[in-house]
Input
Amino acid sequence: MREEDHRETTLGDSGEAAAEGPAPIGASADGGPEDEVASPNPFKAVRSRTLIPWMLLVYPGLVLVAFLTGHLVRADMEGQAFQFLGDYLPLSIAMVTWVLWATRRSGVGIRQLIGRVPAGYNWLGALGILLVAMVFSLGSAVVIEYVVSLFAPGHIEWLMGIKMVPEAESGLLYMVVWCLAIAVIAPTVEETLFRSMLINRWGTKWRLSTAVIASSLFFGVIHLTFWVGPAMLGLVLAVMYIQSRTLIVPIAVHAANNFMALSLGLLAEGGTEAEDQAAEGLLAEPLTGAALMAVTLPILIWYLRRNWPTRDAEIPYVGNEGE
Output
């Protein structure tokens, strides 16, 4: 064999080896023992784009199963309990199964993904920022509602028809299940998907700051009511996740957000008609909403700038390696 042919064959073989994957742990790219490479990041193998077709295929199928099951057990198909469970439960199951499939397929360690709460974590400060974000969300909802009502009043009527709290006659069992779903299941499922999976994947693919923005916008969009507030909350939760490097913090803060919103909703349902009309009249004023946003937005910007991930920040999953 000529020397040129031998050189081409060698280069071709090394090119195929490089395409197959990274060098083994403990070996350098050129095979030398000196330069150890870090353990591979499994989020390089996660494909977040599979989430959309997964949801489009799995979610409708689960809704159909719930619908058929409801017929078999002769459930009240028009009842609030069935409508809630028949819609929310399939959505949660679809998201959870995608996370389980993606982590198992890519070799993501669950314990490393969850992480541990740092000693002496400032929970009081996290709660304070959450309250600010909730006030901002309320103000933005009032402003958006006013603007949308000028151009699409039918959309506002549709939003007002969405029940955010269970009706009094729904029954104790349904109210307990509903509260658990909103205050426990939703924060756990949504934070695992949006903060943990998407931030680690998109932070691997792009910069971590880009992943924070993209995942927060996605989080806001899926909340079909008034997405500005949820998107801002998503930014806050993402920063908390990166800062603490544990999924427990955003889950707990998200649960506190939902619990307080749920409690306020239940209190509003129990108020007198005159009190309800007075509260609705105050919150219907767009100037009130703009004022709430003006007061809280500078605080949120200060918090985000102070804790924003640096240009070379590593994803939380890699930062938890060895724990």
